Amino acid sequence: MITQIKGLHHVTSMASAAQQNNDFFTRTLGLRRVKKTVNFDAPDVYHLYYGDEVGTPGSVMTYFPFGDVGRGTRGTGEVGVTEFAVPQGALGYWSDRLAGQGVSGLHQDALFGEARLQFEGPDGDSFALVESPSRERFAWTGNGVPQDAGILGFRGARFRLRDTAATAELLTFMGYKKSETSGAISRFVIEGGNAADTIDLEEVPGARTAGQGAGSVHHIAFAVENRAAQLEVRQALMDTGYQVTPVIDRDYFWAIYFRTPGGVLFEIATNEPGFDRDEDTAHLGEALKLPTRYEPFRDKIESLLPPIAA
Ligand code: ZN
After folding, report:
1. Which of 63, 111, 215, 277 could crosslink 123 through cysteines, CB 3.0-4.6 Å?
2. How far does residue 286's CA lie from ligand 1's centre (Å)?
């Protein structure tokens, strides 16, 4: 078992229209856009990052808005629900706010003793707000959601899998411990990590395989403190038989990726250097930031990207 993983780092999904995506995460959910950059592997598509004030690891929801792309189909082998933490007692506020803005799929229930409000994103993305124990996290209030209701970062995520056994074994190797089971859903928790510390595995043996498209999670990233810890994790995974990519520089973190037995693409990302490495905290996410290798093509890239009104 490895001990370097500290919970979630970010979740990256696919979207259709960039403006709609931006407005939902900033105006509806009240998150801060902490980075506006491009997909480093396909720079004609934005990579938009939303989180708390500084984009603390464990708070960062990111999107590739592809514009004209079909919706994904829900199924197995994917992150089925991305879960955000909100303060105790905040769900009434959110229920009213989301209903008032015409958000679809609103449904309130409880799981593992935590009240939750499920809802859909603009591309049919599956989300839940979960009333969670306070863990010294602070909501971004710059978009008008009050501090006592604001999103505190991720609570965790739920994977939907045809067979959970191999993924359960992997999570255990990564430092997670199985804590509770409710019906077909088993909860895994990482101790001593950040507050985005749960992964729920839902076994749905008869369901079809998910098809990726707008509203689908592309990959889920787990946090390690630094590059040394990342190299230790990479070696341990490869020693266990996983095929892991080389370390890739994502400007705001370093990344490695590997496909898991249940089908979900995992990333391990470093907490260093962070989203303020090339912008003042006061102006995070405002300017289009490009990796150095694309700077010579800035005019061309900007001409291909749809403008996003703040
Ligand atoms: Zn990523």
Report:
1. 215
2. 20
